[in-house]
Design a protein that fits this description.
The structure holds two protein chains of two kinds. Chain A is mainly α. Chain A contains twelve helices and no strands. In chain A, helix 3 packs parallel to helix 6, helix 9 runs antiparallel to helix 12 and helix 10 runs antiparallel to helix 12. Helix content of chain B is about 75%, strand content about 0%. Chain B is built from 13 helices and two strands, in the order H-H-H-H-E-E-H-H-H-H-H-H-H-H-H. In chain B, strands 1-2 form a two-stranded antiparallel sheet. In chain B, a hairpin with a 4-residue loop joins strand 1 and strand 2. The longest helix of chain B is centred in the middle third of the chain and has 39 residues. The chains are: A mainly alpha, B mainly alpha.
Chain lengths: ~270, ~325
């Protein structure tokens, strides 16, 4: 379906745009997002493009800096999750037998751990920060990737050229990290887009519950303060609550489009192979 | 007798998981840095004398060896002697007991409504399949699943609660009204409406996609064509033949996600101040009330594990093909 592929391209452009904004946030932001001012609860106007919050911080600047935290945690957590999932899945699929049985038992175990309560309790007991949040989100979300990678590795292993390399005495490490990983790449990219999206939503949920770092502006943290200060009951909800949520939705939509695009490519590749 | 052996394996799996959760719950606060006294008493720690600190350690058995502590923890766990919450100044067990029912009400009704709406819409979309509508459904589902649930909750609360005043702003029942009987039921329903709508809105999509896919597969099967040819009315075919088989993947979906559905209410409950386990957990997190955080985690995890187990047990009831597969 060509429409799907275009969807993927739109997603990439959108994501690149948001990445640029995040990168140049200090240059683009009209105010220091952490600096409070006496002009609080101001409606959007000339001075403050998107108004101000309860302590007079400029919402537009907060949004720009928030993009950094959200994207960084999204990508970092996805990196950890995908790396763990791919490694475990590859090892299980390649060696089979006992290794496979134990790794898959571990995977099934992790899969049934209640995700949100576990993430909340781990965050509550650690110091909030970009690294700790990414690690927590990453180590709690690898099992699904491991399962897919495992079954894919099992199929790839039977490829003729892999079998030939193996017969010629190529070591497992070489085959796994040179050839199998390369073959798995489209699948990994597809999973990664979905994981970044889940990471961004996870970060915003944690921040919304008050588990974010106070030092880092994030869209979830903005919504946490809006909720804590009862912005919903005042007129301020229009400029304080709507924008951060729309930003989360926009990034997450862009990533969904990218994974759709990757999925259709994956399907076509599969068809080519058949 | 493979079926019974399979069952034993499943039970063992869930029991192990439960044991893991109980153990983690014990070790987590002990492994992490920081003084246990601060964890137990919160910000009051600065004003305590050495003797008082010793007293607290003794009261929580923290002066005993680790193994002994673990045994005492297990005993207290099963005798429901869970200590006090310092932020709420109430026994933790009583707090949790009063909250659990509301979460079950919210999550349970969401499960029921979302699966019914999701599968009916999925079936409808499958039998009126048109490429343009299909694309619209895809885009719609992408957008809906991209919206953070708690944000949707905030918007709905703001528009229908605060601006229009159609629904109450917080709680699960009117704190001042003395309703009884049917009036009380209506009051509870009115408070349930917005949280439930939000939850259904953010979770019916996965059932819709599953049901649509399942129905599309069944619709192209030979026996459905045969049923039409035999002159059975299309409505009956849809109800008795297609729907019956669409339920199976939907139920599998429920099984996989029952944990998410239960714990996903943390965010929604927080927005609506719905007095469930989720909002209790959030309040505990905000007050850094670690003992309370731990036990809400324990209870919500136990409930989730139990729900998954229950879903596992029900699987053969929904899919008759799994029934008695093992015995000859």
């Amino acid at each position: 379906m060509p429409a799907m592929n275009n969807l993927g391209k739109v997603g990439v452009v959108l994501l690149a745009f948001i990445l640029l904004i995040a990168l140049f946030a200090p240059q683009l932001a009209p105010y220091d997002p952490h600096k409070s001012s006496p002009q609080n609860y101001q409606a959007p106007g000339k001075e403050h493009f998107l108004g101000t919050n309860d302590i007079g911080q400029d919402i537009f600047s907060e949004l720009l800096f928030g993009a950094r935290t959200s994207l960084l945690i999204g990508f970092l957590s996805a990196l950890i999750s995908i790396a763990l999932g791919t490694l475990i899945g590859m090892l299980a699929g390649w060696f089979e037998g006992g290794t496979d049985r134990w790794l898959m038992k571990l995977t099934a175990f992790f899969m049934t751990i209640p995700y949100l309560p576990a993430v909340i309790i781990l965050s509550a007991f650690t110091r909030p920060g970009i690294i700790s949040t990414s690690v927590i989100l990453g180590i709690m979300s690898w099992p699904a990737t491991a399962r897919i990678v495992r079954s894919e590795t099992m199929t790839l292993k039977k490829r003729e050229y892999i079998q030939v390399c193996k017969a010629m005495g190529a070591p497992d490490r070489y085959l796994l990290f040179r050839h199998i990983v390369k073959e798995l790449m489209p699948l990994i990219m597809y999973r990664a887009a979905a994981r970044v999206r889940a990471g961004i939503l996870g970060e915003s949920s944690l921040s919304f519950l008050g588990l974010g770092s106070a030092a880092q502006k994030s869209w979830g943290t903005m919504l946490y303060y809006a909720q804590a200060k009862n912005a919903l009951l005042t007129k301020a909800w229009v400029w304080w609550v709507l924008p951060p949520g729309l930003c989360i939705a926009l990034v997450s939509c862009a990533l969904s489009m990218i994974s759709y695009g990757a999925e259709t490519r994956l399907d076509r590749r599969m068809e080519d192979l058949l | 007798m493979t079926e019974r052996r399979e069952m034993r394996k499943r039970i063992l799996h869930y029991l192990l998981l439960l044991a893991l959760v109980i153990t983690v719950n014990f070790f987590l606060p002990r492994l992490l840095p920081g003084s246990p006294i601060k964890t137990l008493t919160g910000e009051e720690v600065g004003s305590l004398t050495a003797a008082e600190k010793q007293g607290i350690l003794a009261a929580y058995d923290l002066d005993k060896p680790l193994g002994k502590q673990f045994l005492l923890y297990l005993r207290n766990l099963f005798t429901l002697n869970w200590g006090n919450s310092y932020s709420k100044r109430q026994p933790i067990w009583r707090l949790i007991r009063s909250r659990t029912g509301w979460t079950l009400l919210l999550a349970g009704s969401n499960l029921l409504v979302s699966t019914v709406i999701g599968s009916l819409l999925g079936l409808f979309a499958a039998s009126h399949r048109q490429s343009r509508r299909g694309a619209a459904a895809l885009i719609g589902s992408t957008v809906i699943s991209s919206l953070p649930s708690f944000w949707v909750a905030m918007i709905l609360l703001s528009v229908f609660g605060a601006q229009l005043g159609w629904f109450p702003l917080y709680g699960a029942y009117d704190l001042w009204g003395k309703y009884t009987g049917f009036a009380r039921f209506l009051d509870i329903l009115r408070h349930l409406a917005l949280p439930l709508i939000t939850m259904v809105f953010t979770s019916f999509m996965m059932f819709f996609t599953t049901a649509r896919y399942g129905a599309l597969q069944v619709l192209s099967d030979d026996y459905i064509k045969m049923a039409y040819m035999r002159g059975i009315s299309p409505g009956r075919v849809r109800r008795a033949y297609v729907l019956r088989n669409t339920w199976i993947p939907v139920f599998t979906m429920v099984m996989l996600d029952v944990g998410y559905l239960l714990s996903g209410s943390v965010l929604i409950e927080t927005v609506f101040s719905y007095p469930g386990l989720g909002s209790l957990m959030q309040e505990a997190v905000r007050a850094r009330d670690y003992p309370l955080i731990q036990y809400t985690f324990l209870v919500s995890s136990t409930l989730t594990i139990f729900a998954m187990f229950l879903a596992d047990l029900c699987q053969p009831l929904v899919d008759p093909r799994l029934r008695g597969a093992g015995d000859e």
